[in-house]
Every structure is written in C-alpha cells, then in structure tokens.
Write a structure and sequence with these properties.
Layout (H helix, E strand, L loop, with lengths): L3 H9 L13 H18 L3 E3 L4 E3 L11 H9 L6 H9 L2 H14 L3 E5 L2 E4 L1 H6 L1 E3 L5 E3 L1 H9 L7 H12 L3 H4 L2 H15 L6 H9 L25 H19 L2 E6 L2 E7 L1 H8 L5 E2 L1 H10 L11 H10 L1 H4 L8 H13 L7 E2 H18 L7 H16 L11 H20 L2 H4 L6 H11 L13 H23 L1 H15 L6 H5 L3 H12 L7 E5 L3 E3 L2 E3 L4 E5 L47 H18 E6 L6 E4 L3 E4 L1 E7 L2
Parallel strand pairs: 8-14
Antiparallel strand pairs: 1-2, 3-4, 5-6, 7-8, 9-11, 10-18, 11-14, 12-13, 15-18, 16-17
Helix pairs in contact: 1-2, 2-4, 2-5, 2-8, 14-19, 17-18, 17-27, 18-23, 19-20, 23-26, 23-27, 24-27
Length: 655
Amino acid sequence: MLRFAEEILLLLHDEDRGDFAPGLAQHSLNIALAGAVLMDLALENRIDTDLEHLFLADATPLEDDLLDPTLADIARDTDTRDTNYWLAQTTKRGDEIRDKALTRLVNRGILEAESEDIFLLSRLVSRSRRYPTIDGKTLEEVRLRIMRVLFSDEIPDPRDIVIICLADACGVFKNILSQSELSEVQERIELIRKMDLIGQSVTKAIREHEPPTPVPTPRKEIPQAPGLPLIGNTIGMKRDLGSLLVKQYRNLGPIFRIKAFNRRFVVLVGPEANTFVKRGGKYLRTLENWVDYNKAGGVGRSIISMDGPDHIRLRKELTNMYTHHLIEGRVGDAVHVLQQDIAGWPQDKPLPGLYTWQRIVLDQIGVLALSMPVHDYLDDIMIYFQSKMKTYVMRQQPRLMLYRPRVRRAFKRVEELAQRILADHEPEKRRNKPPDAIDHLLELHRRDPQFLPETDLDMLGPLSAGLDTVANICAFMFYELLKRPDLREQVIAEADALFDQGMPTVNDLRKLDVIHRTAMEIIRLYPLAPVMSLRTVANSFEFEGYKVPAGETLLIGFTIPHRMPEYFPNPEHFDIDRYTAERAEHRQHGVYVPFGLGAHRCPGNRLAEVLIALNMATVLREAKLVLHPPDCELKTKRSYALLPNYKFRLVRRHR
C-alpha cells in the first residue's frame, strides 16, 4: 500500500516533463503533503480529531519515516492543539516528506530518477498503468483512478475520497485539469467531499490555512561586479573564472552581474543558487546558447539544446545511448580497448597524459556506442568540438578562426565520419548484431520521424560527452594516483580483488569504494568547468530578493562551493575521506555538484562513473607506471574546460 503523500506526488507527476505540477506553489504542495501525513495517521488510528482539536490516540511508532516524525512531535507535546496547528507544524517538513516519498517511489520501482529533480515513470508502470506494492500485488495508477471517479458515476474507494478531498483543498486540480474540465467535474468534487468521513477536520484546516504573507521589500537592483571600463570583467573571467566568482560571491552574495566587453551575464552561484536551479526548470532554457553550435554540426536540435517535454522524452528514449546501460554486458569490450592501447606504449618513453586518455576513451565510446574504433579521427574530433565550443558557446574566439585550413580539414573529416557511421548502421548491415547507441537513435527516428527528423540526428553526441568528461577526469585521476603511492596501492588491491572474480559487471564496478571516493575528490578539485552552464531566462523570477527578467543570460556557477572551506575544510587539500559516511561533506545541500543540476544534468554521469572506475582499475593492474619526471607538478590549461598537462612513462607490463 502506498501512503497518501506518495499518491499525491504521483497524482501531480507530469509524465512528459518529469516534474510535479510546476504551476503549483511550493507552499501549496507542502500543505498537501502535510495533510497527507495527518490523514495517514488518522487512518492508522494514531490520532483522532473533532471540529476543534487533534488528539493523540496511540503513540506507538509505525516504523514509517514519513509518519513517525510527526507522530513523535504530537506525542511529546503536553498541550492539546487544534488540527490547524499540527498542519502548520508538519508543513515545515514539506521538503523532507517530499524527498523521502520520492526515494520510496524509486526504490519500489514506480519512478526512475533521471536526475535529482526529474523523475520518470518506470517502464513497467508506464506500460501497465499499475504500481508494484510491497505485498507483491499491484495498484492501479492514481491519476487513472481519480480521473475515472471524477468523470463518471463510479462509487469511489474510501482512500480515493481522501485523495480527492486533499487535492481539492490544496488547489491540485487547478494545476492538472483545464478550466473547462474543472468546471465539468466541480459538482462531482462537491459530492465526493460530503463522503469524506476520515479527514474532514484536516481538509477543513487546509482550506483555512493561510500561507505566510511575504513581507514586501523594495525592489533591488542586481549588484554589478566591479570591473574595468569597456572590457568589464573580461580579464578575470579569462584568467580564472572560478576565483572571480568566489570573490564576488563573498562580496556581493549569490546573485550579481558581470560583463565581458558587450556580453552581460546575471551570475547565480553558491548553494542557494544550486538549490534554486535544481527546481527552477520552468524559468530557464538552453536553446539560445546552442543554436549556432548545433547548426555548425548540421543538426537542428540536440539533447543539450532541447527543453521541456521534448528534452525529457529524448533523454528517456535514449537511455541506452548515454547511460551506464551502454556498457552493461560489454565491460570486456571496454577493457580490451584499454589493453590494446597499453600494448602499444613504448617502454621508458614519456607519453602525454591527457592525449593518451582522450585516445583511449574516444575509442571505448566508439566501440560501445558506434560499434567502431575512432582513434584515426582523434585529432579531428578534438579540433571539431573544441572549435565549436570556443566559437559558438563560450565565444572565446572569433568565427574567423573556423576558416583556418586545419580547422576546415577537421570539420570535413568529422563530417565524413558521421556519414560513415550512418552508412554502417543501415538495417541490413546491422542484422543479427547487438544494438548500439546509434541503432537506438535511428530506431527512434524511424518510429517517430516528426519528433526526431533527419535534421536532428546527432551521430557524434556520445563522442562529445566522452571527450569532455570521462577523458578529462581519467587524466586528472591518473596523475593523482601516480603521485600518491599509498593511495595507488589501495586502488591496485581493490582492482585485484575485482578482477580475481572474473570480468566485472557494472554493479561490481559501482561497489568499488576507494576508486569511487578518489573519483569524487578528483571532480571536486578539478571540475569539468568552473561554470557548468549557461541558461536563458524564459520566465522572470525572484531570487534572494532580486527580480531577474525574462531574456537575461544566466551564468551558473554550479561547482563554486567545491572550493569553499565552510563546506569542504582545507579545500585545496586532496582528501578522499571527505566522502566517508562519517564525514559526508558532499551530502550538504547544494554544495557538491559534479555533473550539473536540473533537467540538463549530464545524462552520461552514470556511464562516466562506471568507465572511470573500470579504466583506473585496469590500467594500474596491467602495468607499472610513473610520472615523468617523477617529481613533476601538475600544470593545467584553461579552455572551455580545465585540462591537465603532464607526462608519464611505462616501466613494465605486469601481464
């Protein structure tokens, strides 16, 4: 059986967008969840109510983390309170109730967490329209049940009466029904309200509950970060954008303006900003920042430039293209690519760290996603993606730079690769072969050519993700492991234990402890970019007392808290114990954001975690390797991403 709070969330769930009735005010949602908790306590005979008071009937805990905290509060209170009081008290736990209810729905296989705040119906539920329950039975989908009761004369189940009364009292139906639909069922809702024998006092309290009145404050101007005449903050942004944002956050707070020549940005930074962006999808979009980038690649739309239901649908459809599903059952193929590369390393000759990992990872993604190695195109692919990013997204160089002969040659070669990929994936050539990422992409195109037309077929998307995330993280992590012999020995021991059981599975790799915590610290110290995202304000909003108008360009510093000592003590120090259960520094709300937030959180983060762990475990087990020279200090280059610069050499192979 599901709790009322879980069913209220499922009733509000927008299957197309993956969120929960974004038009419903946060306070209204919290009231609905608080009312749901009180309703369940009444149904479990733990509380009783009359028109004036709420009484404790039984203080015995239910062993339920949704209900027991409120039950304990009521049991501790020596005064007799009315229902309004306990509704207001429980409303303060609204976010906690929501998060716990969503965790339970994911654990029960009803929802799948696409990101921290995007939840999709599981494939089983979306097909059957029934929920699995703990006792092995199934329960019909809540929206299907409620809509059938509202639009027919069916006699409702007592639990559905409670849900309808809760939803009506909190204004839920105004957010999930059109005005004409609401008018059509209003009399039916009034009739059902009269059937409510369980929670009349709760719904009455909800209707009487007044949300806190915001204190009017004078409209403030968003502060401007000081800069130089004409060029503004250009020098600081180019030299070290992260340090600039930390400094201005200290001086101005979590929102301020910066400019670089004629480009102006509103900056959101810090845990406050991350918390807002996590649930602020209705205010933001990405399209404007990626139009020219897509066009340069011959693509009209891509997953990174889509917003709303189309973006969510494409993420869901292409689960096998970007997530850890890509490597399930094919771990051995990824290991083979790395072993082949190691076999070609000359002994005692310096090798470039980043370039080596770019070659390995690009080939791994090529084999897994495209069913072909792509190392022959490595230099062209890097020039292609880097030129597009610097020119069209970050605007670090003029478009004239794209006409250099080497860049034009790279673009031509990459276009040839895209055509080769397409030709190699004609149906007759793929018969009796396991489907890869491109097969899934083309299948979606054939199934729904209007949603994904030929003009939107992005053959190179997986390569871009691998180059910008997995390769960079592997290169940084490889350096730190070679530099730290004690940590390296721990990783080798973990790798030996892993491979001694045979070829590992994805689940085996995700259970690794030392390697996983090392990767987490690498991403904290060397974030993929100091600013993970540019957004356009689609709908004006208020943040920290400032109004941000529609049309502004936002620069969001997701990873800035990574370098703040109040969240990560001694932040420049490398310390993988930050992520132990005892310290759990990364668990602080909004401070650790390795792969972005919200609807556009990196779709390949789970694949990245698995591939990074596999690569580190494999390479250190296969060979003895050292830095060149042994005492070399890591140098970094700032481009649109932070890039490591060092060399290493092979001492000997172990096998």
